[in-house]
Amino acid sequence: MSLKRISGSLFALALLLCLVAAGLAAGSRRNDRPWMDRGLSPDARARLVVQAMTEPEKIQLLSSTSVNPDQPLPLAGLIRGIDRLGIPAIKETNAGLGIAIPFRNGHHNTADEATALPSGLAIAATWSPDLAYAAGSLIGSEARAKGLNVVLGGAANLARDPRNGRNFEYAGEDPLLTGSIVGEAIRGIGDRHVISTMKHFAVNDQETNRSNLNAVIEPAALRESDLLAFEIANQRGHPGAVMCSYNRVNGTPACENDWLLNRILRKEWGFDGWVMSDWGAVHSTARAAQAGLDQQSGVEWDGARYFGEALAASVKDGAVPGRQVDEMAQRVLRSLFAAGVVDDKTPATLADSSRDAQLAQHLAERGIVLLKNSAGLLPLAPDIAHVAVIGGHADIGVMSGGGSSQVIPAGGPALQIPAPAAATWTVFDPSSPLNALAAKRPQAHVDYASGDDLKTAAALARTADVAIVFATKWEAEGHDSGDLSLPADEDALIDSVAAANPKTIVVLETGNPVRMPWKDKVAGILEAWYPGQGGGEAIANILVGNTEPAGRLPITFPAGDAQLPRPEIPGYTSSPGNPIDVDYREGAAVGYKWFDARRIAPLFPFGFGLSYTSFAFHDLSVTRSEVPSVSFTVTNTGLRRGSAVPQLYAWAPGADGQVTQRLVGWRRVDLAPGQTERVDIEVPPLLLAGFDAERDRWQLSETAYPIAIGASAGDTPLTASLPVAPRELPP
Ligand code: GLC
Would the pTM count as exceeding 0.90? Predict the structure, then answer.
């Protein structure tokens, strides 16, 4: 036999031996690590790991550090992995508007950049759960591409106060819209094998004194409002984690609140993931562990490491049963297995930044709300000759909100203005409305004035066919706005420009509703929210009519602070840090429900938004069944294709007997001129029910409920009565 053949045989033999050895090793590893068997359930796999863990390894899973200089990216939270058991490190990042890597003293690396999506209110203004899912999927894929496996995104707090500095991260004032939008975003993140985090559980509905405030609210009213939003989001999204919030709820800290965490979240809603604290929201060891907290987040933010050695000591002295720590570790592990984090460690695919940028712009376009368009000034005529663009740094970018959700946009910020009071920066995303508009109207003369000088701005406006004023109001985590006004100089600028040219359009880049003392002096108003890194293009496409304005308000625009349940934010003027009670006496009557119950006319109602065409809703019929439903027809009665969002409202008594208007369904319908579509909407009984706190049950108390179809909460002309069988709903 030739030497060549012998060496070939030896090689083949060696290869065979290697394969056999590898097979044996894998087999033995499978024996050593039975939890790696993907055929087992996440709970079974988690139990097997806990059985193999040492006590210190279990404790290691139950707190995260926000100091992690050894990581390639600064992480909001890091839980070291357990290599011995094949459990990866848990790498937590913010959040709901894109992967938010914090600035490093105002600077950043390219790797810190991510797609900057429009604000939560903008995504909610699309009234599109599908688009919310797409946003979540983008966030999940970009997290994986950066090697991160937990996104602290899934904020479902209701906008109880339209001056809350974090409303731009949320989805508005209604439980069904919020729960649907945030639930789908959570589902989108989870489908990318990344864990999402429903937060801030619960009633963290203002930033002022957030760590010292006690939310006082009837439990039944809380069930029918804030908790209903979380319940729907949890049902739709199945988050892997929940973050309990800074505040107290009826006297008990949210992160030590057995009623919230064990009774409702786990027992009633079946949440099977883990509860992490907000950063600096833990106040005890045994009390918190027994009440349902599983993990202390960002231990450096608290006064002590409650879930480190102190927890081990509490087990030793019997204050915390050993099986409790096993269950806490188990809940963390089962989420890791359920999300695919253990099995699918490596990034599936690198993020597709151009596809993500297109989605960011599309989300902005679908979320922009046309509030006024007198004399059909918009869309701008194709042959318009001279346009004045004024203010809002429109020559370089669009505003974004501040705090932990701040994304460093692809390509870096267009402008960064230090905001020392908030210990952060005001960031403008690189998408210039001026440049985008000029590109879409190349024949027009498009001039810009910063707006710093009112006379210059007015002079430019006077000479133009149309003047477009960009007005911005910055909002940020940790801070509320003292009132609903735009910064004074912005109102003054709008007044000056409108006085110089009646064909003035105001484009708002705000994180909340704002007062509009100049509303009757201008011809057009667009609410663009914080429109993200595609915002300039999106605004320009709406202005020139390349895209129909499709957004509808997810939050009421009050005419002024006096219309609100609390004309002044509790604690806003008193020194921050003092413990305060916030008496949510409006109960479940949040937003439009408050305005409807008190017959108050807001500036612009919830659900409002104009189109470049017009619609009619007609032929409403109702069907009585276990799940009652309605049918009606939508017709595009205008001359352009457009997007209608017919909303279905019901009037139903809450636990307190107070009848409130409730959004119980909606559809988004895109129609060509003259086209009609028959729409069916089923009404989930839960949305009509009141919560009976004595019986701890949801109750349908009426045999019929008044319902109406409308274009907003304040415009519901198509009415009927919805027959329902009175009954208790199953828990
Ligand atoms: C913050 C926020 C929370 C964020 C966390 C980590 O204080 O309340 O939303 O996810 O800390 O940065």
Answer: yes
- Token pair of 603 as six digits: 């500036």
What atom of ligand 1 comes closest to residue 404's alpha carbon? 12
Which residue among 196, 278, 405, 479 is best mutated to probe the pocket of ligand 1, counting the most ligand atoms within 8 A of its Cβ?
Answer: 278
Ligand 1 pocket check for 157: Cβ under 6 Å? no
What φ, ψ does residue 671 adopt, rounded to 5°? -135, 145
Q: How far apart are CA 104 and CA 258, in angstroms?
A: 38
> Alpha carbon of 124 to those of 59, 229, 363, 400, 689: distances in Å?
39, 13, 10, 16, 24
228 lines ligand 1 (CB under 6 A): no
Asked whether 210 lines ligand 1 (CB < 6 A), one says no
> Atom 3 (ligand 1): residue with closest C-alpha?
278
- What tokens appear for 489 in the block? 């100089």
List CB contacts of 272: < 8 A, sequence separation 6 or more. 43, 266, 331, 334, 335, 338
- Residue 386 near residue 380 (C-beta atoms within 8 A): no
**What pLDDT is recorded for position 454?**
98
Place 383 in a pLDDT band, splitting at 50, 70 and 90. Answer: very high
CA separation for the pair 507, 369 (Å, rounded) = 10
Closest CA to 368 of 512, 168, 508: 508
Give me the chain's average pLDDT, please. Answer: 95
Looking at the DSSP bridge assignments, the partners of residue 388 are: 447, 467
Residue 94, ligand 1, Cβ within 6 A: yes
In order of their start, the domains of the chain are 17-51 (no CATH), 52-338 (3.20.20.300), 356-563 (3.40.50.1700), 613-729 (2.60.40.10)
Q: Copy the structure tokens of residue 646.
A: 């017919």
670, β-bridge pairs: 643
- Any ligand 1 atom below 6 A from CB of 199: yes
Largest CA distance in the chain: 102
* Chain centre to alpha carbon of residue 402: 14
Task: Report the chain's terminal Cα–Cα distance, integer Å.
Answer: 79
Confidence of residue 31 (pLDDT cuts 50, 70, 90): confident
Q: How far is CA 729 from CA 658, 686, 701, in A?
A: 19, 8, 11
Nearest to 493 by CA among 389, 399, 415, 419: 389
Residues 6+ apart with CB under 8 A from 452: none
> What's the token pair of residue 160?
């109880």
Q: Rounded to an integer, what distance in angstroms lies between the CA atom of residue 337 and that of residue 693? A: 36
Name 79's bridge partners: 90
